[in-house]
Amino acid sequence: MKLLADRAGNPGGFLFCGSGAVALPEGLGELAAKLPCFYREPMAAPLAAQLGEAGLQAMPAGALQRNDMEFELVLEPRIDWIEGDWPLQAPARSSGAQAASRAMALQLVQLVSNDADTHEIEEILRRDPTLSYHLLKLVNSLGMGTGRKVTSFSQAILILGRQQLRRWLNLMLFAARSDDVRSPMLLARVSVRARTMELLAREAGEGKQVQEQAFMVGMFSLLGVLFGVPLGELLAPLSLGESAQQALLTKSGALGELLAMVEAAEHCDMVAVAKSLDALQLPALDFNRLVVEANLWMLSVTGEVGHHG
Fold first, then answer.
1. pTM for this structure?
2. 56, 166, 182, 247: which one has the fewest Cβ atoms less than 10 Å from its Cβ?
3. 106 and 172 share a domain?
4. Based on the domain organization, do 28 and 55 belong to the same domain?
């Protein structure tokens, strides 16, 4: 399932990548109930019927445009959906405040990655009202079954735990910025990528630590795109483990192979995906189920994270 942007550049629908006979995963209907899901015509009648039962519809003629360059808000009236890699283009120059907020989020990611003291993390949160507001909002909305409201950063960090804090900060890096038209689709794409990698690691029987690492590799793989800076420069202060570094910089090792496969799936390169699945001994149906699960997760988190200024 390839994510489509609507006319405003926000995640708006999905496009089914495939044409041959395929076993459809559970959960596809749930995804189609949340956002419109389409398939391209012509499509073999049996598969079209199967997709229709799951809630997918034929893409109306002329309603989809491919765009791999900058996002163009001036669209032909009949265009409703945009596919392509435009969210991966270099960013426009951020305003000072926006750039500072993103840099601060990256600094927080570095501190949390390096297991800094809570008071060091608090210091940074005190300097960024947007980040601190969203952190407290998140922790209070989770409620954590305590029934009491969280009032301090140290309490919030304690309740969330380092692992959840790290994950949330990673997402906040990509969250919507009013001056970055790529933000909503970039957040969605990186969320699906990270979650798919985590689920693949779980499926391969890896423990919690490797699953967490797989998520982080997926998340950090688009940091260079986000900042418009070579990825190696951004990774230097994060003191990542060797396997994560290799995966991100050379796509080597087990995590690097997972990243390459997820990227191939994003580009509907089914030959490369099939080859990787063979190597992993993972049936295509299981992979499709994970992709659907990752997209459902993305829809749940981007709703929480995506709309801050």
1. 0.87
2. 166
3. yes
4. yes
The number of folded domains in the chain is: 2
Domain finish residue from 179, 207, 227: 179
Residue 71 lies in a domain: yes
Domain that holds residue 50: 2-88
Distance separating alpha carbons of residues 124 and 155, to the nearest angstrom = 15
pLDDT digits 0-9 by tens, 255-288: 999 999 999 999 999 999 999 999 999 999 999 9
Q: Which residues contact 43 (CB under 8 A, 6 or more apart)?
A: 19, 51, 58
Are 79 and 104 found together in one domain? no
| Domain termination residue (choose one: 60, 88, 116) | 88
Q: Return d(Cα 215, Cα 197) in angstroms, integer.
A: 6
User: Would the pLDDT of 144 be above 90?
Assistant: no
**Residue 41 CB contacts under 8 Å (≥ 6 apart), including other chains:** 48, 58, 59, 61
CB-based burial label for 253 (10 Å; 0-12, 13-18, 19+): middle
Beta strand spans in the chain (E): 2-5, 11-15, 37-39, 57-58, 64-66, 81-83
Contact 170, 216 (CB under 8 A): yes
Assess contact for 231 and 223: CB atoms under 8 A. yes
Res 122: pLDDT: 87
Burial of 220 per CB tally in 10 Å (0-12, 13-18, 19+)? buried
Q: Is 270 helix (H, G, I), strand (E, B) or coil?
A: helix
Sheet holding 57-58, edge to edge: 57-58, 37-39, 11-15, 2-5, 81-83, 64-66
Q: Angle of helix 96-113 relative to helix 118-127, nearest 10 degrees?
A: 170
> For 216, which DSSP code?
H
| d(C-alpha 260, C-alpha 256), whole Å | 6
